[in-house]
Structure prediction request, 291 residues.
Amino acid sequence: MKYLKFFLIVIILFPLISNAEENDKRNKITKNLRCLICQGQSVYDSDSEFANSLKIVVDKKLQEGLSEDQIYEYFKTKYGEWILYDPGLNKNTYILWLLPILIFLIGGAIIYKSFIVKK
Amino acid sequence: MKNKILPFSVIIIFGIIFFIFYKGLEDSKIYTPDVNTKKEIPVFNTKEFFSGENVKSSSIFELDKVYLLNIWSSWCVPCRQEHPLLMNLNLENKLNIIGMNYKDNLKNAENFLKELGNPYKEIFIDLDGTIAIEWGAYGVPESFLIYNNEIIKKYIGPLNQELVDEINLLIK
Prediction:
């Protein structure tokens, strides 16, 4: 009887949990997609016709079993890099990626020279 | 020597930052979509506007023919403005105009065509806007010039006489 109860609970809860997981994933993806016809809004935040259609497409792609990266790649081929809020490393964005490392190294060198070497 | 390193590196860092901001100033801040890239047209299944029958994209677009795909809707005001131009283009008979009815009420769409005329050779339905996304469209109205199953040019927003002249030049 105990097992039966446990079994029933699992059966009832499982769809809820997996549904919530899918929702989380969908929200994460739509938050990283720019609503191209809005000003400063992600697809997740926007309620425009464009954003609503995009949400449906994300749902469809998730159901088809595409991974998050594959979905980003799909939208990139349709609309270009600009649709992604989190751009990859390329010739337009290398400064953005390398500058913090450069500043960290130069700053580190200054600290090393002026404090550690002085001692 | 040691005293010189600090001001020297500060100058370099400011130099780099100045360079980056200066480069950033040159870039356009307005997002301009790429309208000239040649892309294959997407493959999709949809429904025909009048009959409601299922149609495949491959049966709509044939090779060796010029098509103008026009995304329209009865609730879209700029579509009304560009409609007479589409009617004229259809009369000239140089290309086939295909309509994509976008997120519309079918009755309203039919009334729209009754009122303003039907320039389309074929119309298919995009009820939830997902086919428009497949095409890489932003909204209504939008037009795609297609030849050999390739998008030659994309026109975002309503067509005007200048753009129609450009289309006529391109398909010559």
About this structure: Residues 2-31 of chain A form the longest helix (30 residues). The mean pLDDT of chain A is 85. Residues 88-119 of chain A form one domain.
